[in-house]
Amino acid sequence: MRYRISNIPLWLDEDEGLLTRRAAERLGVSAAHLREVLVIRRSLDARKKGHARWLVNLEATVDGEVHAAGADVTPAPAPEPPAPRVRAPAAPPIILGAGPAGLFCAWELLERGVPSVVVDRGKPVGPRRRDVAELMRSGALDPESNMNFGEGGAGAYTDGKLGTRIHHPAVRKVVELFARFGGVSRILAEGKPHVGSDLLPGAISAMREELERGGCTFLWGARAVDLELAGGRFRGLTLADGRTVDSDRLVLAPGNSARELFELFARRGWPVEAKPFAVGFRAEHPQPLIDRIQYGTERRHPKLPPADYKLADNPRVAGAARGVFSFCMCPGGVVVPTPTEPEMQCTNGMSNSHRSSPLANAGMVVAVSPADFAAEGFEGPLAGLEWQRKWERAAYRLGGGGYHAPAQRLSAYLAGRPGTAPGRTSYRPGVVPADLSQLFPPAVREALRAGLRSFEKRMHGFVTDEALLIGVETRTSAPCRLVRGEDLQSPALRGVYPAGEGAGYAGGIVSSAVDGLRVAEAIAAELGPA
Predict the structure, then answer these.
(1) What's residue 159's pLDDT?
(2) How far apart are CA 282 and CA 309, in angstroms?
(3) I need a labelling partner for 126 at 20 to 30 A (CA). Which of 13, 77, 171, 270 fits?
(4) Contact residues for 1 (Cβ-Cβ < 8 A; gap 6+)
(5) Integer Cα distance of 121 and 219 in angstroms
(6) What pLDDT is recorded for position 163?
(7) Measuring CA to CA, which residue among 523, 520, 424, 409 is closest to residue 471?
(8) How far apart are CA 508 and CA 161, in angstroms?
(9) Which part of the chain is the FAD-dependent protein C-terminal domain (predicted)?
(10) How many angstroms separate the CA atoms of 37 and 23, rounded?
(11) pLDDT for 319
């Protein structure tokens, strides 16, 4: 019988051969009775500085009877059976958006015998890469091809972290497919799987090529401008060039920056609602500083990866608690521009597979809600979107244009001092010194400052003149939600399936991909067995 043995400790300088012996001890058998031993997860436990260790989960087939009990020894889960094939639809489903939700929806449908038509306003990875490089070199933005729009969606060029807080059986499938197409088998056992922005675009392209070989069609540079309906049911997608793609099923997986689509829903009176998200700045520190804070005396150990962190607090501001947290932490990474509209500035972070940059970055963000938008006169389903735009325009002006980012030393921002010359930064096309207290309402600024003081108490040295705040971080998640029912369809648009982060149902690569799989399963259930 095959078992899973969890949380086996292994100190940094210990030989991996000890894992099999320790697994056998947990099982109450001799190591000679174990075969097909496989490491399925390896997580770093660095909670005690100077005493870092790995916690490893193994699977092994055991010959004979096991003499063990406890939560750390369980039967290994059985492999998932192949997806059953379903009845072919009259026309291939349309998937709007070639990000994680769209691609994984297409994959699941194809596994069930249903090829789809994937429509994206952006470009394939190759030409998209050139447009992204030009934005970072010269500040020239292509509104149709950038860090958010194009093959792979926003995730293709913003790090490739595959960690997630959701607990869904399909998470493993998502990671396995990224490992397969990216040639990065190491992520199958990583506690915090990370492909890297240098490898993820290639993985996305390889997946797309496999989908094309299976019969899927991809339309690039195809911006959707309207939905064709008949009797309340979807019948076709109208593109900006006048073409119409006919189908009776549409998966809306547009990403969290599809502002024209959100505006279309509001203009037509289709179900869309404002939702909370988070805003703030990207904090950039020297990576050796973060290593020293997190690892202490072991910081130079060759087996330790560049250190990361995850911080959260709920300070009370104006009599109410407000969440403040780190977002999308990128050890050994760079800060990148992520605008999609002219004269609006926003940022994100990414790391390549080796995480070799001398700098670390993470969003330092504050939760905001429709009440915050209303306080500044923004009402209705697009209130959050217009509120985002207000602060992105303000950041663009403060940076002097050309997608230069306004920046201030973290210590100066916290003390309320005027900005001085920024320190070292990875951000391109560049930063300019600015007073970041001009950005965001007082309640957001006060909460962020309170959160930063709290973070300093947990990570002594976090608040330093060596750290930089770069503005602004506004695209943490979609500002609105395209409403769907229990059958995952829009209640007013039959045959339309909102999906992923852009529709308001996920946050990050993996949860978006899983939501795409769920939508494909819902379509398959409606089609019925072949």
Answers:
(1) 66
(2) 14
(3) 171
(4) 61, 62, 66, 75
(5) 8
(6) 81
(7) 409
(8) 8
(9) 276-476
(10) 9
(11) 87
Q: Residue 377 and residue 318: Cα distance in Å, rounded?
A: 19
State the pLDDT at residue 158. Answer: 67
**pLDDT at residue 148, as a whole number:** 96
> Can you tell me whether residue 313 is helix, strand or coil?
strand
User: What domains can be seen in the chain, in order of their start residue?
Assistant: 2-75 (3.30.70.2700), 94-272+483-527 (3.50.50.60), 277-473 (no CATH)
Tokens of 388: 């985002």
The Cβ of residue 269 has, within 10 Å, a number of other Cβ atoms equal to: 9
Query: What separation in angstroms does the CA of 347 have from each of 6, 33, 188, 275, 327?
Result: 38, 53, 29, 21, 12
Task: Tell me what pLDDT residue 165 has.
Answer: 82
Cα–Cα dist 338/317, whole Å: 30
* Confidence (pLDDT) at 29: 93
How does DSSP classify residue 389? H
d(CA 201, CA 224): 24
Tokens 């909102």 sit on residue: 498
Q: Which amino acid is it at 77?
A: P
Beta sheet of 277-286, edge-to-edge order:
312-313, 324-330, 359-368, 277-286, 468-473, 405-409, 431-433
- Residue 58: predicted pLDDT: 96
CA atoms within 13 A on the CB side of 318: 9
Q: Global pTM? A: 0.95
Instruction: Compute the distance between CA of residue 233 and CA of residue 248 in angstroms, rounded to an integer.
Output: 7
Sites in the chain below the pLDDT cut of 70: 69, 158-159
Rg of the chain taking only CA atoms, in angstroms: 24
238: number of Cβ within 10 Å: 14
The Cα 103–Cα 97 span in angstroms is 8
By the 10 Å C-beta count (0-12 exposed, 13-18 middle, 19+ buried), 164 is classed as buried
Q: Greatest CA separation found in the chain?
A: 72
Please provide the distance, in angstroms rounded to a whole number, between the alpha carbons at the two ends of the chain. Answer: 35
